[in-house]
């Protein structure tokens, strides 16, 4: 058993542990941290497969940006954990069934004769001047150009849908329409001066007694 194979089994075990704890953790902050652990171990798995660019991208994009955003959102929101986990066990059988079906589908794909996993064989040493970034870009923009463009369109649609949901019309919108401001006619007057008489409040005069002296307040 080689060192690479030992590291593969260790990283795979940690990835499975992090994935299970992400789903079963009671605290959402802990679940996010377990997901960060899963992403980091997955990046190390990519590095073990000599795909340095994908490993670094996974750390920078998901761990450095997406998961940090998730952590900020989870920590700033007042999440009721008990209410969030109220229907966990009720929906657990459905989730377990879907997970089993997905696992069976993946196994059938891997053991299918058309997949031909035996053709890959053990990983070979690559030359020092080999660039996996250049090879990856060549494959994306030649062989997998159509799936790449479809994925980009789906991401753009998701972004547009999120913006549309955020900017839905409300009953009392608190924003200013610049078009309505421009339509104002300056000749009609944006501000009208109204002449009003000045009102001066006089201080109250103290009450006096019969001798003309002010009455002293009683404590």
Automatic annotation (TrEMBL):
Subcellular location: Cell membrane
Topological type in the membrane: Multi-pass membrane protein
Cell membrane in keyword set: yes
Acidic residues: bias regions: 208-219
Coiled coil: none
Catalysed reactions listed for this entry: a quinone + NADH + 5 H(+)(in) = a quinol + NAD(+) + 4 H(+)(out)
Main location: membrane
Molecular function (Gene Ontology), one example: NADH dehydrogenase (ubiquinone) activity
Pfam families tied to this protein: Oxidored_q3 (PF00499)
Any one Gene Ontology cellular component term annotated for this protein: plasma membrane
Region (Disordered): 200-219
EC annotation from Swiss-Prot or TrEMBL: 7.1.1.-
Function: NDH-1 shuttles electrons from NADH, via FMN and iron-sulfur (Fe-S) centers, to quinones in the respiratory chain. Couples the redox reaction to proton translocation (for every two electrons transferred, four hydrogen ions are translocated across the cytoplasmic membrane), and thus conserves the redox energy in a proton gradient.
Family of the protein in this entry: Belongs to the complex I subunit 6 family.
Protein's name in the database: NADH-quinone oxidoreductase subunit J
Organism of derivation: Neisseria shayeganii 871
Gene label: nuoJ
């Amino acid at each position: 058993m080689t060192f690479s194979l030992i590291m593969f089994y260790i990283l795979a075990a940690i990835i499975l542990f992090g994935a299970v704890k992400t789903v079963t953790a009671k605290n959402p902050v802990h679940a996010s941290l377990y997901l960060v652990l899963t992403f980091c171990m997955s990046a190390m798995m990519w590095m073990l497969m000599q795909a340095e660019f994908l490993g670094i991208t996974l750390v920078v994009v998901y761990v450095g940006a997406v998961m940090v955003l998730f952590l900020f959102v989870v920590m700033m929101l007042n999440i009721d954990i008990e209410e969030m986990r109220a229907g966990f066990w009720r929906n657990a059988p459905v989730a377990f069934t879907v997970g089993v079906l997905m696992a069976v589908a993946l196994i059938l794909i891997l053991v299918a004769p058309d997949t031909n996993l035996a053709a890959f064989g053990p990983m070979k040493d690559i030359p020092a001047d080999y660039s996996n970034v250049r090879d990856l870009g060549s494959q994306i923009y030649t062989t997998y150009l159509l799936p790449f463009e479809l994925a980009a369109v789906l991401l753009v649609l998701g972004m547009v849908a999120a913006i549309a949901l955020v900017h839905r019309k409300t009953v009392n919108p608190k924003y200013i329409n610049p078009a309505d401001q421009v339509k104002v006619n300056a000749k009609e007057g944006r501000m009208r001066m109204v002449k009003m008489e000045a009102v001066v409040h006089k201080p109250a005069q103290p009450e006096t007694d019969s001798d003309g002296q002010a009455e002293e307040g009683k404590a």
